[in-house]
C-alpha cells in the first residue's frame, strides 16, 4: 500500500490552485456572502451599500438593517473583494473575475 487512501481521491493540482480553491470555499461558506452574490447577479444595476444591506436584512432572520450594513462593510464585502468576486465603493458589483471561480460560485 504505497499510496494513502486520501491521496487517491484528491485531484492532481498544484499548491497554488489548491490554496485558491480553499480560499474560495471559505468565502462561499457564509450564507450571507452567497446571498450577496446571488442578489448582485440578479440586478441590472449595481446597488449602493445601503440598499444591499436592506436586502440582506430582509432575507436574514438574524440581522437588522444596521447590523447588515456593518457586516457587509467590515466583513463580507472585503472577503468577497479579496477573493476577486466583487468590487465596491459607491456601489457593489460583481467583477468579471476568474472564470473558474465564477463557475464555482454559480454552482452554489
From TrEMBL:
Name any one Pfam family assigned in the record.
DUF7344
Q: Locate the DUF7344 domain: which residues?
A: 25-90
Q: Which domain of life is it from?
A: Archaea
Q: Which InterPro entries match?
A: DUF7344, WH-like_DNA-bd_sf
This one is known as DUF7344 domain-containing protein
Say which species the protein is native to. Halosimplex litoreum
Amino acid at each position: 500500500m504505497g499510496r494513502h487512501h486520501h491521496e487517491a481521491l484528491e485531484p492532481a493540482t498544484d499548491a497554488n490552485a489548491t490554496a485558491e480553491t480553499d480560499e474560495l470555499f471559505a468565502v462561499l461558506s457564509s450564507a450571507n456572502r452567497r446571498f450577496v452574490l446571488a442578489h448582485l447577479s440578479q440586478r441590472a444595476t449595481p446597488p449602493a451599500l445601503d440598499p444591499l444591506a436592506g436586502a440582506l436584512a430582509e432575507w436574514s432572520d438574524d440581522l437588522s438593517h444596521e447590523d447588515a450594513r456593518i457586516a457587509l462593510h467590515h466583513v463580507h464585502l472585503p472577503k468577497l473583494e479579496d477573493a476577486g468576486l466583487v468590487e465596491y465603493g459607491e456601489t457593489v458589483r460583481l467583477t468579471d473575475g476568474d472564470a473558474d471561480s465564477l463557475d464555482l460560485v454559480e454552482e452554489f
